[in-house]
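Consider the tokenized backbone below.
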């Protein structure tokens, strides 16, 4: 891999409705469902991943960076702080069409000042304003905080989005391609769930199974009660491997499932329902349901 490959986490912050999700969609280049109903947690959620030839941009949202109406909420400040700490670059988004520089921003300013991370300002929705207002607006914002750069953008039309991407690469540290190239959004959770299961299999079975086994997460959806339902297939090459993974009376598979579920729950911070299937790759066809074995855990 190119040694100058850049990668890192980009926190995107700003009040509701400024266009953060729209911006991420514009970067990713396709419609992805970004908003998933989940309670605010301190964990930062990856909302989009863009893999370029020179680097990988991983966008995380920062729950609760916006002030709740009038009351200053200590806990939310803490969350903002932690997400700033964990990211490499911070994008602050405001709206060109609502140039009132409000308390919202002042509150953020104090937090930003403490991070010492590069902070870029995106003035979004420039399609809604006349050109003449832009320059004074940029001046006004640059007078209020030392932003590394200020970009007028329109997430809706895509104007300026490319420039932001390129600039982000400059600010990110050198680093690996954390995620596969074709991964865009909340798939990381899905991907990591698969990795966790794979890890547990190797942990429990050590040299008994070859590295060629793979785990595919076939379903990953919100359950009714706020949990996540995950169904994954463990792909093996031989019947004998299938036997080893399932174990006597399904005990091994049960253990793999139990440990995986616990770890995925820890990672997602939510209840997980996990269903594992073991499938022999070679023999598998769509109609071959009979040779599949499942165990609900
Ligand atoms: P978020 O709450 O910050 O994630 O904001 P959203 O991305 O959900 O956008 C809020 C609203 O603003 C949506 O109706 C978007 O279509 C709209 N919007 C976002 N970006 C732009 C833009 O560049 N121009 C215009 N005119 N509307 C935008
Ligand atoms: Mg949003």
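A designed sequence for it:
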């Amino acid at each position: 891999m190119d040694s100058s490959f850049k990668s890192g986490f980009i926190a995107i912050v700003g009040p509701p409705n400024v266009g953060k999700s729209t911006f991420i969609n514009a970067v990713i280049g396709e419609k992805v469902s970004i908003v998933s109903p989940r309670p605010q947690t301190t964990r930062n959620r990856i909302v989009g991943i863009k893999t370029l030839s020179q680097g990988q941009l991983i966008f995380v949202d920062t729950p609760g960076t916006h002030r709740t109406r009038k009351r200053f909420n200590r806990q939310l400040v803490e969350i903002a702080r932690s997400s700033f700490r964990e990211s490499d670059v911070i994008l602050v988004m405001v709206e060109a069409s609502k140039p009132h520089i409000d308390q919202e921003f002042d509150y953020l300013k104090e937090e930003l000042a403490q991070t010492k991370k590069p902070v870029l300002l995106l003035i979004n929705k420039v399609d809604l304003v006349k050109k003449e207002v832009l320059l004074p607006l940029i001046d006004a914002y640059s007078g209020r905080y030392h932003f590394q750069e200020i970009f007028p953008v329109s997430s809706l039309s895509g104007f300026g989005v490319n420039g932001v991407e390129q600039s982000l690469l400059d600010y990110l540290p050198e680093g690996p391609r954390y995620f596969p190239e074709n991964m865009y959004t909340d798939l990381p959770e899905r991907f990591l769930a698969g990795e966790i299961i794979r890890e547990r299999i190797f942990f429990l079975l050590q040299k008994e199974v070859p590295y060629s086994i793979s785990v595919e997460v076939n379903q990953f959806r919100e359950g009714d009660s706020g949990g996540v339902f995950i169904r994954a297939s463990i792909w093996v090459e031989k019947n004998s491997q299938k036997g080893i993974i399932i174990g006597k009376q399904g005990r091994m598979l049960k253990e793999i499932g139990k440990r995986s579920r616990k770890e995925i729950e820890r990672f997602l911070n939510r209840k997980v329902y996990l269903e594992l299937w073991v499938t022999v790759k070679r023999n598998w066809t769509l109609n071959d349901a009979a040779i599949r074995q499942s165990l609900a855990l």
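Residues 31-43, 64-73, 283-297 have pLDDT under 50 and may be disordered.
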